[in-house]
């Protein structure tokens, strides 16, 4: 008589120990638990199809429970009764799962997560947002191997039609990076973007519009003094030339960061344009902005109005948020300046860098340090926040005095 198999129980499975070789615990109907020498417990189903004995993997214990393994056995038996090989079905399902796991969006997000640690947060956000808006809706759910050149080009053509040719080129560059990452990880065979060479009109990268001629700077400063908009915006316009920091750092300034008696503004490192790794490394550090007499006077006037708020330049709608990131550029347009070709909020940095170097002949490392750029000593070490502080204080006051001279004609 054949040996009678006693069905397994969870207690028996948990109590089973590894031996020096593979061992098996049978549950009946071809289902058994394979126990490896290292202690792994793997479900297997033995069956015959077309006169040949076959073996089907059903998962591992406890990830696949005893009840789930029996359900899989029952499903396999029902397929056999219909003349279908369970192994063939399992392979097809596996292939489909792999294809779903290798869609363009899945791989793109994996690529972004891996490499964005070395990017500034603002750049990281722009890249993933660009993909979410212009690429994922059309090819995101397709297997990366199945995407064709015309399909990718169609995505870029939509951007070209909108007039955002620079975004189209950036999206193409990102897609090429994703394809190459997929090739390196064994999930794609080729990068499609070289086939698009010449398919998009060329685009010449433009720098932020900036006024660097001293006479024109004087005209701009006089125009700012004549601004007829809100007082908070007027103060932001008047302070931007003095600080020459990035617009985002200006609009997010908080009163707690200022010490008017010490004549300095300490910007937390997490607000600077740094990579995620740099922000983590420089947590608790600050970028010091010395305050000239003229800047102090503007800030004192403004503090009477917004001093109870968290932000130096609060939104017109609520004191709990800073002004919009478009406020400065909108004000410049209101003053008659084209923000694409003449002047932008970011242009105050180029204005200061150029004139301080070419007209006031300030040493470049002093200027670069005040611009919060990475400046290193001859041994390659990054300077700390107080390096050249005396020279920087003198430079900021000289710069403020020079701006007054230009404004007064």
From TrEMBL:
The keyword DNA-binding applies. Residues 206-401 form the Tyr recombinase domain. Residues 102-183 form the Core-binding (CB) domain. Keywords: DNA integration, DNA recombination, DNA-binding. It comes from the Bacteria. Gene3D superfamilies: 1.10.150.130, Integrase, DNA-binding domain, Intergrase catalytic core. The keyword Membrane does not apply. Signal peptide: none annotated. PANTHER family: PROPHAGE INTEGRASE, PROPHAGE INTEGRASE INTS-RELATED. Belongs to the 'phage' integrase family. This is Integrase. It comes from Desulfofustis limnaeus. The lineage of its organism: Bacteria, Pseudomonadati, Thermodesulfobacteriota, Desulfobulbia, Desulfobulbales.
């Amino acid at each position: 008589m054949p040996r009678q198999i006693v069905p397994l129980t969870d207690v028996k499975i948990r109590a089973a120990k590894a031996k020096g070789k593979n061992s098996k615990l049978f549950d009946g109907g071809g289902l058994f638990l394979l126990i490896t020498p290292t202690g792994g417990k793997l479900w297997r189903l033995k069956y015959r199809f077309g006169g040949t004995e076959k073996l089907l993997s059903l998962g591992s214990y406890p990830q696949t429970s005893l009840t789930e393994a029996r359900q899989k056995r029952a499903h396999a038996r029902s397929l056999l009764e219909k003349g279908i090989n369970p192994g063939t079905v399992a392979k097809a399902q596996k292939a489909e799962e792999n294809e779903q796991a290798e869609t363009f969006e899945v791989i793109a997000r994996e690529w972004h997560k891996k490499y964005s640690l070395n990017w500034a947060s603002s750049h990281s956000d722009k890249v993933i947002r660009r993909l979410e808006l212009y690429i994922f809706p059309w090819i995101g759910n397709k297997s990366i191997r199945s995407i064709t050149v015309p399909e990718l080009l169609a995505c870029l053509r939509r951007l070209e039609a909108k007039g955002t040719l620079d975004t189209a080129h950036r999206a193409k560059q990102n897609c090429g990076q994703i394809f190459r990452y997929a090739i390196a990880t064994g999930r794609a065979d080729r990068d499609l973007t070289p086939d698009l060479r010449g398919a998009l009109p060329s685009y010449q990268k433009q720098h932020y519009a900036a006024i660097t001629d001293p006479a024109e700077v004087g005209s701009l400063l006089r125009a700012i003094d004549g601004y007829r908009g809100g007082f908070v915006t007027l103060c932001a316009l008047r302070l931007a030339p003095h600080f020459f920091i990035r617009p985002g750092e200006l609009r997010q300034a908080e009163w707690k960061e200022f010490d008017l008696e010490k004549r300095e503004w300490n910007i937390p490192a997490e607000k600077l344009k740094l990579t995620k790794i740099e922000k983590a490394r420089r947590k608790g550090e600050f970028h010091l902005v010395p305050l000239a007499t003229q800047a102090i006077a503007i800030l004192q006037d403004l503090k009477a109005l917004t001093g109870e708020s968290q932000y130096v330049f609060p939104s017109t709608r609520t004191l709990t948020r800073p002004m919009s990131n478009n406020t400065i550029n909108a004000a410049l347009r209101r003053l008659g300046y084209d923000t694409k070709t003449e002047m932008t909020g970011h242009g105050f940095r180029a204005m200061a860098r150029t004139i301080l170097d070419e007209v006031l002949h300030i040493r470049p490392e002093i200027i670069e340090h005040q611009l919060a750029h990475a400046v290193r000593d001859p041994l390659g070490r990054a300077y700390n926040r107080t390096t050249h502080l005396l020279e920087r204080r003198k430079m900021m006051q000289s710069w403020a005095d020079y701006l007054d001279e230009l404004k007064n004609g």
